[in-house]
Design goal:
311 residues; alpha/beta; 11-stranded mixed beta sheet; 14 helices; globular; binds pseudouridine-5'-monophosphate; binds manganese (II) ion; metal-binding; hydrolase; EC 4.2.1.70; lyase; PsuG
Length: 311
């Protein structure tokens, strides 16, 4: 591995992750905002451990990413996962926050955007999450467009997600991805999925049928020098989904409650996720956990297939 010494000086790559990267074996990055701000305790820490195990069971090494004490951490200990799951002072940090968090020696849980960037700095090309950020509803007035979309435009990482939550504007999100040259590819379906639900009402711009095909797409993209990420959308299994028709009224309610509180910016996604758990009596949390596990499984297989191009 070839990492510039100034960067290496602020980075801690877990020995197991380092060994895998050094040998060209498959590694899957995992984010930490989903732990600190995406789910309640103790389900969050349990999910984090189980997802790492699923990555291992499917032939790859997990690397959960965060910033702790100002250091870029790639691969966390069980104690560090517990800290992220319980310490309310840990901030949700996106790419714009990285310099301050590092310079001032703070703790931060990384979003899709900042996890992608750190993964890429360490040479990790495949990343599993739950759902990515996107264009928020009403963005034509608020300009609230997740930095996740901009990071996908620039950083060479494949993000495996269950699509985009319908708390966002899915149509506008797909438009921004197209403008930025980001392939949005659905695995095994012609319809782009909506996180809790398999159906979104939007046709997927692109699709592939297998993880091996997805890995070939990554190789083709990057070998052509087409920099930037790939969004690989992986629909939640039918037995775990909340159908779109059941979900939509819950989402409307959560959006209404958020407007009443006047929440904006980085607080909106954590609020909406938490409110939807309350409104659904915990059902959406089960669904969220099921889809993250499903994404970890697929990401490990994509990473294993992609590693064959890098020998
Ligand atoms: N979607 C989820 N759970 C999450 C997130 C998204 O189902 O926890 C987090 C991710 O870290 C994502 C971030 O990058 O929310 C997006 O936040 P924003 O909309 O503020 O960009
Ligand atoms: Mn935002």
């Amino acid at each position: 591995m070839n990492i510039n010494p100034d960067l290496a000086a602020i980075m801690d790559i877990h020995p197991e992750v380092f060994a895998a990267l050094d040998a060209g074996r498959p590694v899957v990055a995992l984010e930490s905002t989903i732990i600190s701000h995406g789910m309640p305790y103790p389900q969050n820490v349990q999910m984090a451990g189980e997802v790492e195990q699923i990555v291992r069971d499917n032939g790859a090494t997990p690397a959960t990413i965060a910033v702790l004490g100002g250091r870029l951490k790639i691969g966390l200990s069980p104690e560090e996962l517990q800290l992220l799951a319980t310490d309310k002072t840990v901030q949700k940090i996106s790419t714009r926050d990285l310099p301050v968090t590092v310079a001032l020696g703070r703790n931060g849980a990384t979003t899709v955007a900042s996890t992608m960037r750190i993964a890429s700095l360490a040479g990790i090309r495949v990343f599993a999450t739950g759902g990515t950020g996107g264009v928020h509803r009403g963005a034509e007035h608020s300009m609230d467009i997740s930095a996740d979309l901009l990071e996908l435009a620039h950083t060479d990482v494949c993000v495996v997600s269950a699509g985009v939550k319908s708390i966002l504007d899915i149509g506008l999100t797909l438009e921004v991805l197209e403008t930025q040259g980001v392939p949005a590819i659905t695995l095994g379906s012609d319809e782009f999925p909506a996180f809790y639900s398999r159906q979104s009402g939007f046709k997927s711009p692109l699709s592939v049928q297998t993880e091996a095909e997805a890995a070939r797409v990554l190789h083709a993209k990057w070998v052509m020098g087409l920099h930037g990420g790939v969004l690989l959308a992986n629909p939640i299994p039918a037995e775990s989904e909340i159908p779109a028709a059941d979900m939509n009224p819950h989402i409307q309610q959560a959006l209404k409650d958020m407007d009443a509180l006047g929440l904006t910016g980085k607080d909106t996604t954590p609020y909406l996720l938490g409110r939807i758990v309350e409104i659904t009596g915990g059902k959406s949390l089960e669904t969220n956990i099921a889809l993250v596990k499903n994404n970890a499984r697929v990401a490990a297989r994509v990473a294993a297939e992609y590693a064959r191009f890098c020998q």
